[in-house]
Design goal:
The structure is a single chain. The protein is an alpha/beta fold and about 300 residues long. The chain has one domain. It has ten helices and nine strands. The strands form two sheets. The protein has a seven-stranded mixed β-sheet with strand order 1-9-8-2-5-3-4, with helices on both faces. It has a two-stranded antiparallel ribbon with strand order 6-7. Strand 6 and strand 7 form a beta hairpin. The longest helix is centred in the N-terminal third of the chain and has 22 residues. It is globular and about 55 Å long. The termini are close together.
Length: about 300
Amino acid sequence: MTTEHWQNRPERGSLLTLRIMVRLSLLFGRRGTRWLLYGIVAYFLLFSRSSVRASRDYLQRVLPRRPDWHDLFQHFLTFATTLHDRIFLLNEKIEQFHITLHGKPLLDELAQSTSGVILMGAHLGSFEILHAIARSHPEIRISILMYPDNAQKIQSVLHAINPANIPDIIPLGTAGAMLDVQQRLAAGHWIGILADRGLHHTATASFDFLGKPASFPLGPFRLATALKQRVIFMTGLYSKHHYDLYFEPLADFTHTERQQRAAAIAHAQADYVNKLAYYCRQAPYNWFNFFDFWSAPDEK
């Protein structure tokens, strides 16, 4: 049986429902609308069988026991919570968040540097929580390299909250993306990339991930080596109204010669996958790939 690629899966949820959710959230606040998430999660658990199947498959790999319905509910609820929090992050309600920063010396070093850097994350926790840190460091400028057609409904609704606070997005897969990345890096921007998913038919490499081989896109690492950039691993993990934001060195391609690139990419990508596995085990409900992640590349 062929599994549908994540890029081609229809976006769930109506635009009207999303707009109502945003209005209620801004009216009654973060705590006052948390209860709405329970009904939304219950709906998806009942009617999104493929997502539930993917969640159970993942949780079986990462938990030390067989997952039950409570685990599935918690997995979906964590995802819904991070999406809900984006409403308040975009509306600059930073004071509502409790954030513990791990790797502050590295963050301070990067903030004081005039050079750009590539931040590699994943669909693990909240990448948007990084903007909370950036607002306390006005010298930090962040651009996100992403596939623009994914989650268009959510993006359009969230962008309407605060048009002046829309993230700087570089559309992945366009002809000018490479040049845009290069120009922003030269201007000292941090380029954020979620490096666990690739576009359909993109080049991948296979690594053991949580006990079974999985395919990861080569594109983000090829980009970093071609542009001779330093790469930092970043993730923001949610747990009980709290975020832990991690920064760790991943690779430095600034002096990597062309003939060394393949080996350097393989080493860096293996380290990236190991970090993902580690943090998945640390915060198992923060993995937000609700499809068959371990299928063959053409079937994802």
